[in-house]
Amino acid sequence: MTEMRERITRRIARELEDGDVVNLGIGMPTMVADFIPDDIRVIFQSENGFVGMGPRPPKGEEDPDLVNAGSEPVTIKTGGAFFDSTLSFAIIRGGHLDATVLGALQVDEQGNLANWKIPGKLVPGMGGAMDLTVGARQVIVATSHTTKKGQPKILPECTLPLTAKGEVDLIVTELAVFRVTGQGLLLKEIAEDTTVKEVKEKTAAGFSIAPELITFA
Amino acid sequence: MVKIVDKEQIKQLFANGQRLMIGGFIECGAPHRLIDLLLESGVRNLTLIGNDTGFDDQKSGQLVVERRLSRVIVSHIGTNKETGRQMNSGDLEVELIPQGTLVEQIRAGGAGLGGVLTPTGIGTPVAEGSRTLEVDGREYLLAKPLRADLALVKAWKADRDGNLLFRYAARNFNPVIAMAGDRVVVEAEEIVPTGEIDPNQVMTPGIFVDYILRNGEE
């Protein structure tokens, strides 16, 4: 599990560029921050009200007023800034974020995302996810390729209530990297320990395969 | 004029059936002492407008756990399992709104606007039953203004004229709800003499504030 999450978030970190302003969703996406190369500077935005978010502080130095959107203790980097929730969402909705990384319950070949509600079962709410998908220039989905029961999460069409319609740009799983294009999904990369056959078996959506398919570790 | 009042005077502001805005983001920056007074006052059938319903084992979450609410208008309930239980049993009406839309509805309520137009939620269940408008070729949802009878605000420092500073991520919804309550009640970690907060640094001007909860030492 840890290994899978590490592989996904390590791969996503390579999508980010020097100077990017990025919001990481709660859960697995927060791990992306651990894999940013030392020679680039990525500015992390936290939707509860700051830019310049740094890593978890050493034990004993946690401050209850300085937490991320998942209530975990974090730090503020030199040059960071705090603001209220209207300004935070002006950043998010107003096109000032280069990228957001979000988890998924389901994602589909039209770039639709479902991650806030399983009717009758689990209704956590959307929080800031709908604003993030609408506003961020690039929406990257970080997800296990299948559910815990082995069911595909990448579908021809989401069946759960949508978080976003046609906003997803890139899907990264432990097996594959898909780009969402106007003509459906394009398989760009596969993990070094899988095959196109396995990816096909575990993906309910159709996809085309990039001419120069590369592998990632 | 701002009044600095004691606990009993604060409790007298609460009544059954009120619509309350409460600051905070899953407990961070939530007015825990005011919530205690709200719980002690025994009022019920409240409507809560805020980001979330807190943690079920921490202070803000107790408003749900102790069944003081009949309706919540929030963006997220996943950290309080009791909210989901009461929603499923029909005891609590839950209206979920995208966080950026919710905070703008509150701002609109405080700023005299008839609502805001947002692209967030188009093509999702959030858009069902909402009016949409096309502006310059893009589709937007109309999100109507929200106001409340009382706004409960947590500040870091307040001066005796009600000028407020917030600390780190504890700011969140607090300065926004401070504009949208018919009466605005503040708890501050520290109450300082007027003039001690530099006017250049004031985050919420004191004219929005009606009551400040007296701190123990005063």
CATH class of chain B: Alpha Beta
Q: How much helicity do the residues of chain B have?
A: 10-25%
Please give the domain count of chain A. Answer: 1
Using the alpha-carbon principal axes, give the shape of chain B: globular
Describe the protein.
The complex is a heterodimer of chains A (217) and B (218). Chain A is an alpha/beta fold and 217 residues long. Chain A has a single domain (2-216), classed as Glutaconate Coenzyme A-transferase (3-Layer(aba) Sandwich). Helices cover 16% and strands 29% of the residues of chain A. Chain A contains four helices and 13 strands. Chain A has a ten-stranded mixed beta sheet. In chain A, β2 (43-46) and β3 form a beta hairpin. The longest helix of chain A is centred in the first third of the chain and has 12 residues, at 2-13. Chain A is globular and about 50 Å long. The model of chain A has no long low-confidence stretch (mean pLDDT 96). Chain B is an alpha/beta fold. Chain B has one domain (3-115, 150-213): Glutaconate Coenzyme A-transferase, CATH 3.40.1080. Chain B is 20% helix and 29% strand. Chain B has helices spanning 7-11, 32-41, 62-65, 81-88, 99-111, 174-177, and strands at residues 3-5, 19-22, 46-49, 69-74, 93-96, 116-118, 132-135, 138-143, 148-159, 164-165, 181-192, 211-213. In chain B, β2, α2 and β3 (46-49) form a beta-alpha-beta unit. The radius of gyration of chain B is 18 Å and the shape is globular. The mean pLDDT of chain B is 97. Chains A and B meet through α2 and α3 of A and α4, α5 and α6 of B.
Task: Summarize the structure in short.
Chain A has 217 residues and is α/β, with parallel strands linked by helices. Chain A has helices at 2-13, 85-93, 129-135, 196-201, and strands at residues 21-24, 43-46, 50-54, 75-82, 99-102, 106-108, 113-114, 138-142, 154-155, 170-172, 176-181, 184-191, 207-216. In chain B, strands 1, 2, 3, 4, 5, 9, 10, 11 and 12 form a nine-stranded mixed beta sheet that branches.
